[in-house]
Amino acid sequence: MESTIDNQNTENKIVGKGPLCPKCKVELAHRVKRGFLFKRILSWLPVKRYYCYKCKRKHYVWG
Ligand SMILES: [Zn+2]
Predict the structure, then answer these.
(1) CA of residue 27 to ligand 1 center, whole Å
(2) Residue 9 above 70 pLDDT?
């Protein structure tokens, strides 16, 4: 699915394997460990943490 990218309010369907950075739209290939508190309190959530090499930030990604 690589058609027009205009006013999409819904989440983009990712073509690659990993999720995309919400900021720079590059693939978040680098997984990082979740924080201690996060693990303890929200470990039941299907959330993964990724590091974006482009904006050098860590993002929590649902799913
Ligand atoms: Zn980024």
Answers:
(1) 8
(2) no
Q: Which residues pair with 31 in a beta bridge?
A: 50
Is pTM, for the whole model, over 0.85? no
Q: Decide: residue 48, CB within 10 A, 0-12 exposed, 13-18 middle, 19+ buried.
A: middle
Distance 47 CA to ligand 1 centre (A): 17
57-62, strands of its sheet edge to edge: 30-32, 47-52, 57-62
Give me ligand 1 centre to Cα 43, in Å.
24
Q: With contact defined as beta carbons under 8 Å apart, do 58 and 31 qualify?
A: no
C-alpha 44 to ligand 1 mean position (Å): 25
